[in-house]
Amino acid sequence: MSRIGVFVCHCGTNIGGVVDVPKVVEAAKQMPLVVFADENKYTCSELGQASIRNAIDEHRLDRVVVAACSPRMHENTFRRTVAAAGLNPYLLEIANIREHCSWVHSDHDEATVKAIDHVQMAVAKVARHEALFPKTIGLTKRALVIGGGVTGIQAALDIAATGHEVVLVEREPSVGGRMAQLDKTFPTLDCSACILTPKMVDVAQHPNITLLSYSEVKEVRGFVGNFEVDILKKAKMVDHSKCTGCGTCWQKCPGKVSSEFDLGLGQRTAIYIPFAQAVPNKPVIDLENCRYQTFLKWDESQGGKKPPECRICEKICPTKSIDWEQQDEIVTEKFGAIVVATGFKTFDHSVYGEYGGGRYPDVISSLQLERLMSAAGPTEGEVVRPSDGAHVKNVVFVQCVGSRDDRVGRPYCSKVCCMYTAKHAIMLKEHDPDVQCYVFYIDVRAGGKDFEEFARRAQDESGAIYLRGRVSHIYQDGKNLKVLGEDSLIGRPVEIEADLVVLATGMEASDNADTLAQTLNISYTIYNFLIEAHPKLRPVETQTDGVFVAGSAVGPRDIPECVAHGSAAAVKAVALLSQDSLKSDPLTSIVDPMKCVGCFACKVVCPFNAIEEQVTRDKRTVSSINENLCKGCGLCVVACRPGAINLRGFTSQQLLSEVLTLVRE
Amino acid sequence: MVQAESSSLEPVAKRVYSYYPGCSLHASAKEFDVSAKLVCQKLGIELRELEDWICCGASAAHSTSHLLSLALPAHTLKQAGEKGLPLAVPCAMCFSRLRITLHELKKKETLDLVSRTLEKELSTDVTVESMLDVLANESISLPVTKPLERLKVACYYGCLLARPPEVIGCDDAENPQTMDRLMGRLGAEVADWGLKTSCCGAGVSFPRLDIVLKLSHRILSLARSTGADCIAVACPMCHANLDMYQKDMTAKHKEKTNLPVLYFTQLMGLALGFSPKELHLDRHLTDPLPMLREKGLA
Q1: What pLDDT was estimated at residue A84?
Q2: N or C, which end of chain A is more exposed by having fewer CB within 10 Å?
Q3: What is the pLDDT of residue B11?
Q4: Which of A355, A362, A473 to substitute to test the interface with B, most B CBs within 10 Å?
Q5: Distance between CA atoms of A483 and A471, rounded to whole angstroms?
Q6: What's the rounded Cα separation, in Å, for the pair A409 and A407?
Q7: C-alpha span between A599 and A591 (Å, rounded)
Q8: What is the pTM of this model?
Q9: Is the pLDDT higher at B171 or at A653?
Q10: Looking at residue A468, what is its pLDDT?
């Protein structure tokens, strides 16, 4: 016969203010198998936990019910409590009388009756609990970092510093991400490249880091500690083991195309490194634009002149590194932990018809302005108009383009635009004292260390004129642009003649963030930003053990936040990798192979791919649960027609006894 | 087109519309009415003017009573519905009021309220099309006899043919192309410019002429700066503001403003072989005839 103890919590007034706790205790004492019941002001406190331990000891309790808050809150706390008193931690049941009762009811009497019902159900269930034991699983002590922007770089360096191996996968030919495209950073005006490139080089040189540039994660199998990842290494057509990065090829290549890195403001060659400080500093060939490829694809039926064979890069390469035979390749690697740092892209402003819909060359995005201001950019730091190369004097900034705007499906604030626009206004004035900047804004959001002072500096020292209101229309008038808007503080329309308009485009999740999230089995928002396990208390973990998220892939963030989150994710990954083995949660499904008919209805519903096929000794194919993948959600139990599956800790018998208790009266 | 099928009188091949000219087209914008009818006739489009149409309410109704602004067009919509033909509306303001009313009547409470007010059973089973959309339909072939070559046209749509986009269904509320493509098919060169749907000032000319002068002058001078020979419009209000005040603008800006403003139907008429006189090209305050003569079109 079980000896059950019941501990009812007041939770201050959270529960005690609505539920008559002493009455629940008295009722509990009358329940079958209950030999002890008591109340606590705060059961989770050290005092409350001690009272549970003492009662287990004194009254020889073998099962415990805690009637308190949600099990999401303190189930683990109380499991440790009962374990400390020598009980199996799974011989505990939580009756949630806070979230499910006191917080949602106002009638004290009825709430008390309901709380008693909850306790009664928990008592009936815990009587049928069995001792459960976690399994020990091994792990691969290597980490995968997806995304080579500043967040991923930071995470990779921090993990590598603890002696663990890291593979850093970057989709582009170079690491660096968006930060590499920036000129200066707010509010300190550090040169972005100067502070980033040393880290990029560190990544390339660190003995514990393997950098896979121009590569993408395609498939992820396995579970925490034991992930198996297929990585697509796109054909670079250049043998990087031979290439010295001398640059002869990209200086001579005749295939010129618009540069992605310079956002269409400059050109690159078909064999290229995206920017001068690229890491690795070795080129890839863009096959779409390579003249040799055009030559190979040409056939006479198209008519016209046969294109030249080119192959100049191959002819002049001093190390014979050009390899036309290279193919895309998939490599499979094992990892214990994964950090996702896939970053962001900027909003495409061409959906704003009133700002020209992308028609006017002198209406540019803020990131394009960064390239114009950068000494390594297409104009070597001269801020000139894309249309005619003239120096700019009147510059209009428009805030919240693709942010805080429901019409374009982007109701959120991108957080960094107010500050980078202040930076632009300050920098443009430094470039040329004759420049006048105008900033149309909704609010200036300058929350952060030294941010408000910096935003004021743009106005007070750099003389930027801030106009509170939206721009209604931008149109080309001769060589200049006319900007029509409203100054809502004086309630008047304003009209400004500008030579350059800069749209503060907001932050969006990067391309295919949703596909990658699906591959990793982690959640994402309707805007494709990744979802953390808890927005406040578990900011870098996800609902999938062993997968961590960091940086602006989670939501709009500035550089210091991204770096902090990169480091935070690294610590979490290292904490995982530092263990010699992992313990699996025993609350998983279990199949009775004698009852299983092999229909695999369970496999269809399982969101975690935990159902495997197994052949029994009598040659029947039955389902079997991979306990390392199973999260104990119970979907398979419901789907199983012959009732062959049970969920440990929530067996059909346990749930049924709860229900029976409730309906017996 | 369910209505058209149910009306047994209509031969299928022929395009037949109910026609709602609106007040302006019987008065200040008579040339729009005349030219639209001529062009339709030439293109085999039959217009049957509603017998008992009334004013759409224009800006006067919706700035005084929301119910009135719906009830007036609803009366016309009721008639159009009974005819079982789509309704063609040249005036942009009338078109806008009719479309918005139709849109609002899709809400049952509004439909009931307006039905009670008019003591008529209303339905929303009627199509309202702007004359621009009727004539720009690319399945209609244009028997052009005098192509508008050497003529550069700045197409001006104004506010009401573009907005609100969810009601009007304009191709692009900031940079529409319907009239541009139509003018292109007539042989004209079209200006790519940025004020196609900017406000001309509309009815504000009565209380604050200065605002209209400012807004309309901005439109005229930008059109002029793109090298356009004329502006094509589809709205009597816009036409009045752009055409009528050019002398005042010349006086104010000490710079001659002289840019003819024509209804797009008049330009169509010219290309289809009608004479300036037939198209009432002499009714504009900014005389287009010297320019048209110079281009060999008049």
Answers
A1: 96
A2: C
A3: 42
A4: A473
A5: 7
A6: 6
A7: 13
A8: 0.86
A9: A653
A10: 98
Task: Tell me the two tokens of residue A341.
Answer: 């740092």
Strand spans (E) along A270-312: 271-272, 284-285
What is the CB neighbour count within 10 angstroms for residue A213?
A: 23
What phi and psi, each to the nearest 5 degrees, are found at residue A211? Answer: -95, 120
Beta bridge mates, A263 = none
Residue A40: phi and psi, rounded to 5, are: -140, 150
| pLDDT of res. A584 | 85
Q: Among candidates B175, B289, B143, B173, which has minimal Cα distance to B230?
A: B289
Q: Tokens 């992930």, residue?
A: A227
For residue B52, pLDDT over 70 is answered with: yes
What pLDDT score does A306 carry?
A: 83
Judge contact between A137 and A580, C-beta under 8 A: no
Q: Can you tell me whether residue B157 is helix, strand or coil?
A: coil
Q: Do B193 and A475 touch (CB under 8 A)?
A: yes
Confidence of residue B5 (pLDDT cuts 50, 70, 90): very low
Smallest CA–CA separation between A353 and chain B, in Å?
5
Quote the minimal CA–CA distance from B153 to chain A in Å.
17
**Distance between CA atoms of A495 and A485, rounded to whole angstroms?**
6
Find the mean pLDDT for residues B96-125. Answer: 95
Instruction: Answer yes or no: do B194 and A476 touch at CB < 8 A.
Output: yes
Interface test with A, best of B159, B174, B192, B224 (most A CBs within 10 A): B174
pLDDT at B13: 52
Structure ipTM: 0.88
| Interface contact flag, B222 A357, Cβ < 8 Å | no
Q: Do B172 and A353 touch (CB under 8 A)?
A: yes
**Could you tell me which residues of chain A have a Cβ less than 8 Å from any Cβ in chain B?**
353-354, 356-357, 359-360, 473-478, 482
Indicate the SS3 state at residue A271: strand
Strand duo A645-647 + B15-19: pairing: unpaired
Compute the distance between CA of residue A213 and CA of residue A197 in angstroms, rounded to an integer: 16
Would you call A357 and B175 a contact, using CB atoms and an 8 Å cutoff?
yes
Closest partner residue to B174 (CB to CB) among A353, A477, A482 is: A353
- Mean of the pLDDT values across residues B100-125? 95
Which residues in chain A come in under a pLDDT of 70?
A: 665
User: Looking at residue B12, what is its pLDDT?
Assistant: 43
Does B64 contact chain A (CB < 8 Å)? no
Burial of A469-494, coded b for 16+ CB within 10 Å and e otherwise, reads bbbbbbbbbeebbbbbbbeeeeeeeb
Residues of A in contact with B198 (CB under 8 A): 473, 475
Beta strands in chain B (DSSP E): 15-19, 45-49, 87-89, 128-130, 152-155, 189-190, 230-233, 261-263
- Is the pLDDT confidence value at B4 over 60? no
Q: Where do we find the tokens 């009825």?
A: A110
Spell B248-263 as b/e; 16+ CB within 10 A means b. bbeeeeeeebebbbbb
- pLDDT confidence of residue A10: 97
For B91: left if phi > 0, alpha if psi spans -120 to 50, otherwise beta; the answer is beta
Check residue A665 and give its pLDDT: 60
Q: Can you tell me whether residue A204 is helix, strand or coil?
A: helix
The secondary element (H helix, E strand) that includes residue A483 is strand A480-487
Inter-chain CB pairs, A–B, below 8 Å: 26
Element spanning A80, H or E: helix A71-84
Tokens of B58: 């224009």
Closest CA to A273 of A314, A238, A306, A301: A238
Token pair 């009936």 is found at A124
- B3 pLDDT band (50/70/90 cuts)? very low
Can you give the pLDDT at residue A303?
75
Burial class of residue B296, CB neighbours in 10 A (0-12, 13-18, 19+): exposed
